[in-house]
Amino acid sequence: MELNRKLYACMSAAAARVTIDQVTIGLGYTAVTTSDGGIGIAATCVARDGGCAGQRDATDFEGRPAIDLLGQIMEAAPMGRTMALATVNALNHRYARKLPEDPGNTLLFDHFNIRSGARVAMVGYFPPLVRRLEKQKISLSVVDDARGMGDKKTFYGQLDGWADVLLITATSIINNSTETVLAHAGPDLKTVLLGPSTPMVPEAYGHLPVHMLAGTDVTDVQGALKIVRHGGGTRALKPVSRKIYWLADTDPR
């Protein structure tokens, strides 16, 4: 996948300069810290066959050059890709800390005119967003493999002509479906890649119709690592992080 190659290319120079400090794999999220003080998280992948992630053969990346773990983004093993995506986010921590916040998704809704009458497609079920969309009586179509929701053929057809906005989970990078989904995007569709796993690396998406990145900047390293160890999810991470964003049409580059 081109996105994997671009993420690797964008972060390889940074990865060559640091080592992996700690890899923490929790039930909800995986965290990676680097020797320069960086931390990144990504949603822990669970095998689709229902198998436990703990069945994988473990490789110890701690103390090794970060480039070794970053390279897992090109591999097929989902858990390796999870760790690699967390590594991308750790290597990118200095840039992420400069990005503005959108704590209540106000900018997201306003910028893309998501209000009554709008039509939204969603890859990955986001409960807080779903509740808000339903409350505002916004038409919604969802596909989520883990929850057994949606018909992909119908959903893909809705991305060209029906949907105004596509909200796609960044865990799609882990299962290599991001580019497959976006290949069906119509010319007028506005696309937002979101969730704590989101790599805030704008230059990696130049070949894709991505209009907004909405990710997470961890502000309390030890607090976040404890939450990950205890199996915490997205809600638990809120007190130890900022919800950040990047908009394609406001980037001066």
From TrEMBL:
InterPro entries listed in its UniProt record: DUF364 (IPR007161), DUF4213 (IPR025251)
Sorted alphabetically, which SUPFAM superfamilies does this protein's record hold? Answer: Dhaf3308-like (SSF159713)
- Show where the DUF4213 domain sits: 8-91
Q: Which residues form the Putative heavy-metal chelation domain?
A: 108-246
Protein name (database record): Heavy-metal chelation domain-containing protein
